[in-house]
Amino acid sequence: MNIFDRRNGASAAGTALSVLGCLLFLAASGLAAPRVPASKGQNAEQPKENSPDLKSFVGTWKGSFNGEVFAILVLKEQGGALSGTLNNFDISVDKDGNLNDGTHKDQGDAPLLNARFKSGALMFVVMQKDQYAPSTEWKFIPKSADEGELTKLLDHQVNAPKDMVVKPIRMVREHAKQ
């Protein structure tokens, strides 16, 4: 049956108006319904993590392989926040995640993007020198006044094999020459 059949002009128009009225009623009742979050605290602001002492991060940190520096992380404090650069480099690892031949320094530096603290570690993103390559997320943790660890995070690396492991890179703080 076609409710818009012209032979039943009056009843078709009445049916159409009834359907339209029901839709308007449902829409109005949905707008008037009280808003209740789906879970407790869902709309509450997430607490900001307290920043660790920035002095433990600030400085020039270098990573070496076979006696050659290949990674240089420079961290500076600006206005109570960390900023800096990480040089371009390529790493090659064995099946256990240890650096191996093929790890080397490249030309240029990249600014740290989206720098933030999570569980006492500095997390940041660096754009690759190849504009078509995905960005890389890193984690840096100072282990002492002179030593830290730089770890490549593979969670969002679409081009990394699922079983790939990369062990943290040992970084040594460079001291100012006197």
What can you see in these coordinates?
With 178 residues, the chain is mainly beta. It folds into 2 domains: 1-44; 54-174, Lipocalin (Beta Barrel). The chain is built from 1 helix and 9 strands; from the N terminus they run H-E-E-E-E-E-E-E-E-E. A 9-stranded antiparallel beta sheet has the order 4-3-2-1-9-8-7-6-5, with no helix packed on it. A hairpin with a 4-residue loop joins strand 7 and strand 8. The longest helix has 24 residues, at 9-32. The chain is globular and about 50 Å long. The relative contact order is 0.13.
Q: What is the strand arrangement across the widest sheet?
A: 4-3-2-1-9-8-7-6-5
Helix/strand order, N-terminal first: HEEEEEEEEE
Shape: globular
Task: Average the pLDDT over all residues and give the rounded result.
Answer: 79
User: Termini, distance in Å?
Assistant: 95 Å
What is the CATH C-level name of the largest domain?
A: Mainly Beta
